[in-house]
Amino acid sequence: MSIYATLWRLKFPRYGDDHTGCEWIVVIAQGVPTHIGASAPSQPGEEEDPYATFLPPAGVISTDDDGPTMRAVVFVTEGTPKGTARSPQEYPDPLLVLSGHEYAAITFSQLHEMICDALRGDHPPLIAESWGPDGVGRLLFEDGSTRDIGSAGA
């Protein structure tokens, strides 16, 4: 049984920047419900949290909690395998992990930027795409580097 509930799946530019001819990849938001790993108020400390090594803290759940906030939201690309030597529930290389409170407070624009930054990795952000009169395109990156992307008709 999984501790995750799929919240959504969306396509993002594979390397974090949208441009003509870019590849797309599916990013999945995996929510971890608030009660996962938490102890009930009547039994504090009864059991160690088995997910504390790779998820934000669980906290204590009130008996009248309706659970609208997740414990955590883990963002992975489609096909990312789950399971490590430490835990079969751990994603070995998630794009991003937010606490439930961070996820609830963030705007989609901020989340989009964080996911694109994670997909981009160490590569500089794209700042412009230009097309010459000969139909050849060029990508311009923040660090001053460029990359040709071929002709508009290709």
Key phrases:
2 helices, 12% helix, single chain, four-stranded antiparallel β-sheet, 154 residues, 7 strands, mainly beta, elongated, three-stranded antiparallel β-sheet
Mean pLDDT, to the nearest integer, reads: 87
Pattern of helices and strands: EEEEHHEEE
Structural class, judged by helices and strands? mainly beta
Number of strands: 7
Strand fraction: 25-35%
Number of helices: 2
Main beta sheet, described? 4 strands, antiparallel
Helix and strand topology:
Layout: E1 5-13, E2 24-33, E3 70-77, E4 96-99, H1 100-105, H2 108-120, E5 126-131, E6 136-141, E7 146-151
Antiparallel strand pairs: 1-2, 2-3, 3-4, 5-6, 6-7
Compact overview of the structure:
With 154 residues, this protein is mainly beta. It is built from two helices and seven strands.
Could you please describe the fold and organization of this structure?
The chain has 154 residues and is mainly β. Helices cover 12% and strands 32% of the residues. It contains two helices and seven strands. The strands form two sheets. Strands 1-2-3-4 form a four-stranded antiparallel beta sheet. Strands 5-6-7 form a three-stranded antiparallel beta sheet, with no helix packed on it. The protein is elongated, with a radius of gyration of 20 Å. The termini are far apart. The mean pLDDT is 87.
